[in-house]
Design goal:
The complex is a heterodimer of chains A (291) and B (346). Chain A is built from 13 helices and two strands. In chain A, a hairpin with a 3-residue loop joins strand 1 (42-44) and strand 2. By secondary structure, chain A is mainly alpha-helical. With 346 residues, chain B is α+β, with helices and mostly antiparallel strands. Chain B contains eight helices and 20 strands. A six-stranded mixed beta sheet of chain B has the order 6-7-8-3-9-10, sandwiched between helices. A five-stranded antiparallel beta sheet of chain B has the order 13-12-11-14-20, with no helix packed on it. In chain B, strands 15-19-16-17-18 form a five-stranded antiparallel beta sheet, with no helix packed on it. The chains are: A mainly alpha (291), B alpha+beta (346). The interface between A and B is medium-sized, with 22 and 31 residues. The complex binds adenosine-5'-diphosphate and magnesium ion. Adenosine-5'-diphosphate binds next to helix 1 of chain B.
């Protein structure tokens, strides 16, 4: 084997990967790097963006409690959304998995429904259904005498959590579904034959095995919810901002791009740390189930 | 008296009858095999005994008690599944302990019984292994220990050895038989492997298309197959067309140029079934020509073309000279080595 051949072999993978690599660098890494750079630039009402290296934006985010509140709300909403989807989605996937073929595909379609509808149409639908005094649900409940004042939905964190959970549900259900597919079809029979009742079987045998599915679903739902834009923008409007809508406003309304870039970068870094950290924890904890 | 009794049990899935008219009584401590080709309803029958499926008709009784109203969790049966169905998130010891936990066995006793059960199946020292870190044979042993540790009334095994390679399967067969002999648990084994059924069981239930073809000891089913299906399924066999001649006296059974006194109770067209190892080469008998001769170490395998159709003959390699390919021979056997069925062979 000559040296040249070895060299060619060494280079071939790079050459083959080059197009994809260039796309990755071009559309992801470069804009990302520019955003990070931008977050260190200065900005003034009249002077615009000044390409200098200062920590002004970062200091502002660190010291002004307004930003802490924004990020606190963002992660609170993301956590509650994740909990809600896990609480509803895991049982949903389990029930779905036990259904007969025809019903299974029908209900799977219904669960995937939210993903197939435009986020704007869907969220506006929610707004029409629940929003304000004229929302259909509030009207019905009030005319039925169940409530005297409309339940607030628009511009509330509850509203955002409910609307986000609706969109995110498919990710949780599919993730748990995938874990359920890996179960031995006789595993429940095995538990029963050893004397376990249905509740014990679910708690001791099924739950531990689908937990990795629930957790990876939770990671997806959490990161998508924390960086969600459209749903919080429509439900929360300008009054109830989260990190993503805040960054957007800095970019497009205040025109303070560097500050917006700092908010976006912080959101990204926080999410990456949380996702990578919890992923590592989960893989260590569930090494046996994943194998 | 019957310990476990299946009384005309049937199972239908929609319009399809998968098990029909299945009656069997199993004595205490007996080792029974359900033997039949894939899809003949063995697993379905086993699952009805276990309580995972409800019979469409018929009754299943354990110690004369009808099991219909008793859920699987309270039947007290030990089951080894074809896929083993071990709990992958638990260690071997935790898997085995699960049934004892459900029975609220105190911790100390539990640990002792788990240790003993794992030792019995040859897995001492593997307590803390997770199933996915074990080989197929080891997983199979954990599954067996898990089923046996609860001291089940009846042990149900659904093709427990079919996922193992041939050598390991043979080892496990011997071990399974020894364990069953030692602890004396009534056992039902489902298998499609006739050697496995024959080497392990006290009695074999041969099944085909949801129905029982024959129930008998391994020897009975092998030597006196009740139907063409049984004789074909249990090893190689030769089916020769024959007639019973009632004109001559005493009446004679004739197959080609082979003849013998006719067995009582039959007449006209019959099928004569002879195992290949029971056929010898003689001076008189069915005339045949040897097509191929294969040496297989401890025996010779001959494929012959006889006047009654193709025939296989197996001869022990006893060192004596054997006929060669192309030789004309006469095939003969003792009347007690054949089984005769009414009707022409299929
Ligand atoms: N749940 C079910 N629904 C419909 N048909 C079934 C079901 N379970 C088994 N069958 C059918 O019953 C027949 C017998 O199956 P099974 O008892 O598993 O056979 P074996 O274990 O002997 O291979 C097969 O034809 C199979 O397709
Ligand atoms: Mg089967």
């Amino acid at each position: 084997m000559s040296m040249a051949a070895d060299e060619r072999n060494g280079r071939a993978p790079w050459a083959l990967a080059a197009p994809a690599l260039m796309l990755f660098v071009g559309v992801l890494l470069i804009p990302l790097a520019m955003t990070v750079m931008l977050s260190f630039h200065d900005w003034g009402q009249y002077k615009g963006i000044e390409p200098v290296f200062i920590l002004k934006n970062w200091r502002e985010i660190a010291t002004d409690p307004y930003y802490a509140e924004m990020f606190g709300r963002t992660f609170r909403i993301a956590i509650l959304t994740t909990l809600l989807t896990a609480l509803l989605g895991a049982p949903e996937a389990y029930i779905l998995n036990r259904m007969d073929g025809r019903w299974k595909s029908f209900f799977l379609l219904i669960i995937l429904g939210p993903l197939l509808i435009s986020v704007v149409a869907r969220t506006l639908g929610w707004a029409l259904l629940f929003g304000g005094n004229n929302g259909l649900v509030n009207k019905l409940l009030m005319s039925a005498g169940v409530i005297r004042f409309p339940i607030p939905f628009m511009f509330t964190e509850t509203g955002m959590v409910i609307a986000l959970a609706h969109v995110m549900m498919p990710f949780m259900v599919l993730s748990v579904w995938a874990a359920l597919q890996r179960l031995d079809p006789q595993i429940e029979n095995a538990a029963m034959s050893l004397g376990a009742g249905p509740i014990t079987t679910i708690r001791r045998i099924i739950m531990p095995q689908i937990m990795p599915g629930v957790l990876s679903g939770a990671i997806i739902v959490f990161s998508l919810s924390a960086s969600a834009f459209a749903t919080p923008a429509i439900i929360g409007g300008r009054r109830l901002k989260v990190a993503a809508t805040l960054a957007y406003d800095e970019f497009l309304n205040t025109l303070n791009w560097p500050l917006g870039a700092a908010v976006a970068t912080l959101l990204l870094v926080a999410l990456v740390l949380i996702v990578v950290g919890s992923n590592a924890l989960i893989e260590r904890r569930y090494a046996e189930v994943f194998r | 008296m019957a310990y476990l009794e299946l009384d005309r049990v049937a199972k239908q899935f929609g319009a399809q009858t998968v098990v029909d008219d299945f009656s069997l009584s199993v004595g205490k401590g007996e080792f029974i095999s359900f033997l039949g080709p894939s899809g003949c309803g063995k697993t379905t029958t086993l699952q009805m005994i276990a309580g995972f499926l409800d019979p469409t008709r018929g009754a299943i009784r354990l110690e004369s008690r009808d099991l219909a109203a008793i859920p699987p969790a309270r039947r007290g049966l030990g089951i080894v599944f074809q896929s083993y169905a071990l709990f992958p998130h638990m260690t071997a010891a935790e898997n085995v302990a699960f049934g004892l936990e459900m029975r609220k066995v105190p911790r100390g006793e539990r640990a002792e019984r788990v240790r003993a059960a794992l030792a019995m199946v040859g897995l001492a020292g593997y307590e803390d292994r997770h199933p996915r870190r074990m080989s197929g044979g080891q997983q199979q042993r954990v599954a067996l220990a898990r089923a046996l540790v609860i001291k089940p009334n009846v042990l149900l095994l659904d093709e427990p050895l079919s996922n193992l390679d041939a050598k390991l399967r043979e080892e496990m067969q011997i071990e399974l038989r020894q364990i069953q002999r030692t602890i004396g648990t009534t056992t039902i084994l489902v298998t499609h492997d006739q050697n496995e059924a024959m080497s392990l069981s006290d009695r074999i239930v041969v099944m085909s298309q949801g129905r029982i073809e024959q129930i008998g000891t391994p020897q009975e089913t092998y030597e006196k197959p009740a139907s063409a299906f049984v004789s074909q399924f249990l090893g190689k066999t030769n089916d020769f067309p024959g007639t019973i001649d009632r004109v001559v006296s005493p009446t004679q059974l004739v197959a080609g140029s082979w003849r013998a006194p006719a067995p009582a109770g039959l007449g006209g067209q019959v099928t004569v079934s002879v195992r290949p190892e029971r056929i010898g080469f003689g001076e008189t008998g069915l005339s045949a020509k040897i097509i191929t001769r294969v040496f297989q170490g401890n025996h010779w395998l001959f494929q012959c073309d006889s006047e009654c159709g193709p025939a296989i003959v197996i001869r022990q390699n006893d060192g004596k000279p054997q006929p060669a390919e192309g030789d004309a021979v006469r095939l003969t056997w003792r009347p007690e080595d054949m089984s005769v069925r009414a009707g022409a062979s299929a």
